Amino acid sequence: MSMGEPRVVVVEDEPQIRRFVSDAVRKEGCIVVEAGTARAGFDAVAAGGVQLVVLDLGLPDINGIDFIRELRIWSGMPILILSARAAEQDKIAALDAGADDYLTKPFGVGELLARLRVLLRRHAQGIEATPLHRFGGVEVDLAHHWVKRDDIEVRLTQLEFRLLVVLLANAGKVLTHRHLMHQVWGPGRAEQEHYVRIYVGRLRQKLERDPTQPRHILTETGVGYRFQP
Amino acid sequence: MNTTWSRYLLVVALCALTTLLALPLRGWLDLANIVMLFLLLVFVVAVRLGRGPAVLTAFLSVIAFDVFFVHPYLSLGVDDAQYLVTFAVMLAVGLIASHQAAQLVARTEEAKAREHAIQTEKLRASLLSSISHDLRTPLTSLVGMADSLADPRAGLPVEVGEKAGIIRDQAHAMHRMVSNLLDMARLQSGRVAMNLQWQPLEEIVGSSVRLLEDVLSARRLDIDLPADLPLIRFDAVLMERVLCNLLENAAKYSPPDAVIRLAARTRDGRLEVSVCNTGSMFPAERPEQVFDLFARGLQEPAVAGTGIGLAVCRAIIAAHAGTIVAENRDQQACVIFTLPLGTPPSVEGE
Questions:
Q1: Which of residues 235-274 of B touch A (CB under 8 A)?
Q2: Mean pLDDT computed over every residue of chain B
Q3: Which of A59, A63, B174, B196 is the most buried (most CB within 10 A)?
Q4: Burial class (CB in 10 A: 0-12, 13-18, 19+), B329
Q5: Interface test with B, best of A112, A208, A212 (most B CBs within 10 A)
Q6: Helix boundaries (H) for chain A
Q7: Is B204 an 8 Å CB contact of chain A?
């Protein structure tokens, strides 16, 4: 397994979709293993040396959620879901089961590759966590608890900072409202998801150039949020 | 009416038949058991023919029992006064049984109707989701493949790449249309499960603009959202569709240099959101017509085809107890919708 050429398994039962997804991932410099069924996909992943799975949620043979759960028993490799719109509950279930991100059909190649790159990079970094983060004119030093935007210090409250930490630590990953609530405010407050929405709004006010058109703290409608560096 | 009368006649015949069958048993069976036979008849009639015939059966049974089985025979009189109690109990049991049985039948029929409705709804839902899948699959391939060709790295001549880009954008537009049609079908079935959450409007403004990037990127977009807007309770996915439809329409029916404005404010206990564009207008007469499904017969060709998108907006806004109007103001075509403000949940400070 060479680190230069990540191995990606594409599990999708529709041959034309599988084809363009695989072509695009291949052009990105990855080795692609194509699978038309969940069973074949699972075998391809179990063969080892795989860095990422692109998984269609609507496979005919095995429920996509079960596929993710099975895989998560022994691997933390990134899982990128392909899913239909108007299936928010399925997406949340997939994310809760351990998927990292999803693309809603139809999607462009650019979007697919952007998601893929972020997930591969985060996976490759592994435990080499860095306290320094930079995005869109914002600098964050998690070790010394400061945040600057355009070289001017930004004051964040404790909760705002904690929310930012969770978002940064999960770059490229979709985080559900419930997950963020649990991570930042602690357990037992599932009824108060509006806190997450309000605090995300405050972070955007302080960190995004245009809070109404955020570039980094993105809303995944009906599901949660995704931090895009 | 005929069937009603025939049911009552049938009841009379059944009472006569029961009496005839029971007569030979008069010496053999205890009178209590004869009463049972009549009560059985009342019950069967109640289940089969309904309450009215059952009540008649109960009365006829008491009379028949009195006349043919209680001394003196062939007379309404009774020797032993205790039979009056038997008559009373028999009548009471007959009436109660007929009432209960009739109710049981009604409930069973109701349950059957409900079951049928559920089955129809399930069928409709699964049909919708399979249509949705079947339409989306080729569109996903189209968008993906056209996008692959449009990529400059594909090494195709610029002109070919541009055309591929147009195919991609058109496939996206077609997908939005398909989504609108499917949403409309879902909304019209009246069984859309709404996921109502308290949330800032800002979120779906951002996500809508991002979804419409290929349509809006070349346009002048002016967003005016006060920072202190309260949380509003709505279904984010549906409301995102409203904003997307309004923004897409504003872009589609105005010249490329027109300004598209999205603004929100609170007014009279409601949130008011407006999406306006310069450079084109709604038909001056009856602008509300644009919300009709597949609006036809409009004088101005510039607004033909807005039917489905705005009809979906109206259905979604109505499901949120809101209002939506189209009007021309200050040389702009505007769609303005309102949502009730309600009482947002409290937020503790840190």
A1: 235-237, 240
A2: 86
A3: A59
A4: exposed
A5: A212
A6: 15-27, 38-46, 64-74, 88-97, 109-125, 158-169, 177-180, 194-207
A7: yes
Cα separation, B272 vs B267, in Å, equals: 7
State the best of A102, A105, A113 to mutate against chain B, taking most chain B CBs within 10 Å: A105
Q: Which chain B residues are Cβ-neighbours of A105 within 8 angstroms?
A: 136-137, 139-140
Decide if B175 touches A, using CB distance below 8 A: yes
The helix (run of H) or strand (run of E) holding residue B253 is: none
User: DSSP code of B240?
Assistant: H
- Distance, in Å, from the CA atom of B162 to the CA atom of B349, rounded to the nearest integer, reads 52
Dist. CA B135–CA B131, nearest whole Å: 6
Nearest CA among A39, A32, A178 for reference residue A116: A32
The H-or-E segment that residue B204 falls in is: helix B201-211
Which residue in A7, A106, A96, A1 sits closest to A56, CA to CA? A106
**Residues in B touching A213 (Cβ below 8 Å):** 205-206, 209-210, 223
Element housing B67 (H / E): helix B51-69
Average pLDDT over residues A55-59: 90
Complex ipTM? 0.88
Cα–Cα distance, B80 to A201 (Å, whole number): 90
pLDDT tens, B141-164? 999 999 999 988 888 899 999 999
Question: Which residues lie closer than 8 Å to A137 by C-beta, 6 or more apart?
Answer: A149, A150, A209
Chain A residue at shortest CA distance from B213: A213
At residue B297 the predicted structure's pLDDT band, cuts being 50, 70 and 90, is: very low
